[in-house]
Amino acid sequence: MGMVSFEEVVSTVVELFRKAETELPEDVLKALKRAYNREENEVARNTLRAIIQNVEASRKLRVPMCQDTGLPIIFVEIGQELCLNFNLRDAIVEGVKRATKEVPLRPNAVHPLTRENPGTNVGMHVPVVTTEIIEGDKLKLTVMPKGAGSENVSALRMLLPSQAGDVERFVLEVVKGAGGKPCPPIVVGVGIGSTFDGAAKLAKKALLRNMTEMDEFELGLLEKVNSLGIGPGGLGGDTTALAVLVEMGHCHTASLPVAVNIQCWANRRASAILR
Amino acid sequence: MAEYRLETPVSMEEIRKLNVGDVVYITGTMITARDEAHLRMLEYFERGEEIPFKIEDAVIYHCGPIIVEEGGRYRAISAGPTTSARMDPLAPKVLERVERMVIVGKGGMGEGVVRALRGKGVYLAYTGGAGALAAQAIREVKGVYWEDLGMPEAVWIFEVENFGPCIVGIDAKENSLYREVKNRVEENFKRILSQS
């Protein structure tokens, strides 16, 4: 039987946020450098260079690469043989509060209507915690701070079962409508199938995948997205997206939900396994 | 494409010289203002009161920074631009009240702002998400207003040195790099769909 303590979860959450905010994952940096080497538009090259310099400065100075340190999202995978003698959500909440002070994170969570900011990044249903039960006795924590510039231009549509051919068009429409707002080059997470909420969850989970590994369908979509010519910062260029990542789920015979979750170039994420 | 090093206050003559695509570096005072600060400025204008800081002599920066307090002093550790389009409905109402304005943000602004900037101001784009890089150009946090709005929405006064590179996205002659890109993207979209 595994043993994980409250304090261990708290400190792990703090460290994961510190890592996610200050060290861009290798696969993302690799995709940015590849884009920089291939980009032919001069303004776009300058923007990509500034992004890469910023990533290096953030890592060196150990400060958040972007001032929008996001809304805290945590994916939890719990081994079914793991025994916890404390409230896991409480530990995660405590970790977010401490990370907000120590990393530090910008206090982003506000009341949806009064816009009152408690200053802790903690509130009603925040942090956003998704839990999945897996085999074994381990606890895997993944943090994903999600900025609002890209979240605001994400969209979901309930297509008809006869509209499978329109999935691609919908993805392109969402990216076109987003323009320069979500800090392109973007990462496009697509959830196809499942339910209204399930499609959105699949689109978000897709963003956790290694960006340098795409299948033929995804590469085809990426090529079309880049043909739009929005470019880095929305100022034009060959690089509109770094990756298109698709997750699918079976759905009801009468429906076809499609969710497009847009992510800025700062596809920040970090994971740890506790046992 | 020309390159300019501008010091605040930026004169109308300097503003008129700038064309879309030019590169600009700013030295002087930048004032952060996002959604809530714009709304409060408009409330002040409605009541006929003067706002407590001078936006014409500085540069308006669409930014919600991360600020830390060290030994009684504020320091910006990450301070890149926020999405300017959120201020599309608000900025023209602020522009009505001023003689001239330089705005720094990211992602561009709509046609209403392009018209409101005519003969009056420019919109400059800084690299979105480059918060650590931007903070390196901030020499000092000189003050803060309306802190009750919370850290991201408060009005922070920055003293900056060679803040850039910024790209002129909208000039004072109703030219917009974003409009040009948008038109091209629209054509590309139609072409891609006709091919598939």
Quick tags:
heterodimer; A: 275 residues; alpha/beta; 2 domains; four-stranded mixed sheet; 10 strands; B: alpha/beta
Short description:
The complex is a heterodimer of chains A (275) and B (196). Chain A contains eight helices and ten strands.
How is this fold's topology laid out?
The complex is a heterodimer of chains A (275) and B (196).
Chain A: E1 2-3, H1 6-22, H2 26-38, H3 42-61, E2 73-79, E3 82-83, H4 88-102, E4 128-134, E5 139-143, H5 148-151, E6 155-159, H6 167-178, E7 186-193, H7 196-206, H8 216-227, E8 241-249, E9 256-263, E10 270-274
Parallel strand pairs in A: 1-3, 2-4, 7-8
Antiparallel strand pairs in A: 2-5, 5-10, 6-9, 7-9
Helix pairs in contact in A: 1-4, 2-3
Chain B: E1 3-7, H1 12-17, E2 23-32, H2 35-47, E3 59-61, E4 66-70, E5 73-78, H3 91-95, E6 101-105, H4 111-117, E7 121-125, H5 131-136, E8 138-145, E9 155-170, H6 177-195
General description of the model:
The complex is a heterodimer of chains A (275) and B (196). Chain A has 275 residues and is α/β, with parallel strands linked by helices. Chain A folds into two domains: 2-22 and 65-145; 148-263, no CATH class. Chain A has helices at 6-22, 26-38, 42-61, 88-102, 148-151, 167-178, 196-206, 216-227; strands spanning 2-3, 73-79, 82-83, 128-134, 139-143, 155-159, 186-193, 241-249, 256-263, 270-274. Chain A has a four-stranded mixed sheet with strand order 4-2-5-10. In chain A, strands 6-9-7-8 form a four-stranded mixed sheet. In chain A, helix 1 packs across helix 4 and helix 2 (26-38) runs antiparallel to helix 3. The longest helix of chain A has 20 residues, at 42-61. The model of chain A has no long low-confidence stretch (mean pLDDT 97). Chain B has 196 residues and is α/β, with parallel strands linked by helices. Chain B has a single domain (3-195), classed as Fe-S hydro-lyase, tartrate dehydratase beta-type, catalytic domain (fumarase, Alpha-Beta Barrel). Helices cover 29% and strands 32% of the residues of chain B. Chain B is built from six helices and nine strands; from the N terminus they run βαβαβββαβαβαββα. Chain B has helices at 12-17, 35-47, 91-95, 111-117, 131-136, 177-195, and strands at residues 3-7, 23-32, 59-61, 66-70, 73-78, 101-105, 121-125, 138-145, 155-170. In chain B, the strands form two sheets. A five-stranded mixed barrel of chain B has the order 2-3-6-7-9. Chain B has a two-stranded antiparallel sheet with strand order 4-5. Chain B is globular, with a radius of gyration of 17 Å. The mean pLDDT of chain B is 96. Chains A and B meet through helix 3 and helix 6 of A and helix 5, strand 9 and helix 6 of B.
